[in-house]
Design brief:
Helices cover 12% and strands 31% of the residues. It is built from four helices and 16 strands. Strands 2, 3, 4, 5, 6, 7, 10, 11, 12, 13, 14, 15 and 16 form a 13-stranded mixed sheet that branches. A hairpin with a 2-residue loop joins strand 8 and strand 9. The relative contact order is 0.24. The mean pLDDT is 96. It binds (5R)-5-phenyl-1,3-thiazolidine-2,4-dione and zinc ion (ZN). The site of (5R)-5-phenyl-1,3-thiazolidine-2,4-dione has 6 residues, from strand 10.
């Protein structure tokens, strides 16, 4: 192994996203069912952060949390966002047996039981838990439509608007089978602090709804407009990791 390769392997061993090769996944009977409770009163606002839009939630209390599953303790809901592609052919970050989905929802939580702030949690290997939900082209999604109906208020980078009473739990698939592995943030600074929980079942979105995501501006009002056509990171080497499943 060359020096750069060995340096590369040592310094970034748990990057995300990855291809989940289902033949190499290991069923782990000790994995518990996930406990997920999201209070619609926790949702606060919609923000265009330039490379995507976030639905941001109040994370100064434990009203909306995820626990159990592969996790130790509880993780507080902080924000959710989507990743998408320039066409419906790609867009998800995680890939399943080489199959790319048109988009992926990320629900970001942090270990408020152990760490005082989100920024502190980012510095620890058990600091963050992200639930990933794959999206497939299908019927119109009414929950996503409620977000789209507000997107014109956050068209440009750094714009935000109130977004309350959002029932995020209705966006989750009915089937709670999941894969889990240790990974990283998928945007800079790519910190290796994430326990990933990816649902096996995809949820529907229609093609027109996806097109609305691509009409968001990655530029501020003062700049010449450019669009967020895509915002998904390429898959990364799995290195020495094994993906576990909650199901056979
Ligand atoms: O799941 C992920 N998606 C992203 O855009 C990354 C991120 C980075 C910082 C805060 C929240 C999320 S990590
Ligand atoms: Zn993400």
């Amino acid at each position: 192994m060359g020096a750069s390769t060995s340096r590369h392997r040592q310094c970034r061993p748990r990057q995300s996203p990855i291809n989940i090769y289902t033949k190499k996944v290991r069923y782990d009977s000790s994995l518990k069912p996930l406990y997920i409770y999201y209070d619609p009163k926790s949702s606060q606002r919609l923000v265009n952060v330039g490379h995507c839009f976030n639905v941001e939630f109040e994370d100064t209390n434990d009203k909306s949390v995820v626990s159990d599953g592969p996790l130790v303790g509880y993780y507080r809901l902080r924000q959710c966002h989507f990743h998408w592609g320039a066409s419906d052919k790609d867009g998800s970050e995680h890939v399943i047996d080489g199959l790319e989905y048109p988009a992926e929802l990320h629900i970001v939580h942090w270990n408020a039981q152990k760490y005082p702030t989100f920024d502190e949690a980012l510095e620890h290997p058990d600091g963050v838990a992200v639930i990933g939900v794959l999206l497939k082209i299908g019927e119109t999604n009414p929950l996503i439509q409620s977000i789209i109906d507000s997107l014109d208020q956050v068209k440009e980078k750094n714009k935000e608007c109130p977004f309350t009473q959002f029932d995020l739990s209705s966006l989750l698939p009915n089937d709670r089978n999941y894969w889990t592995y240790q990974g990283s943030l998928t945007t800079t600074p790519y910190l290796e602090c994430v326990t990933w929980i990816i649902f096996q079942e995809a949820i529907p979105i229609d093609s027109d709804q996806l097109q609305h995501f691509r009409s968001l501006h990655c530029t501020s009002e003062a700049e010449d407009p450019a669009f967020i056509l895509e915002n998904h990171r390429a898959i990364q080497p799995i290195e020495a990791r094994v993906v576990r499943s909650s199901f056979k």
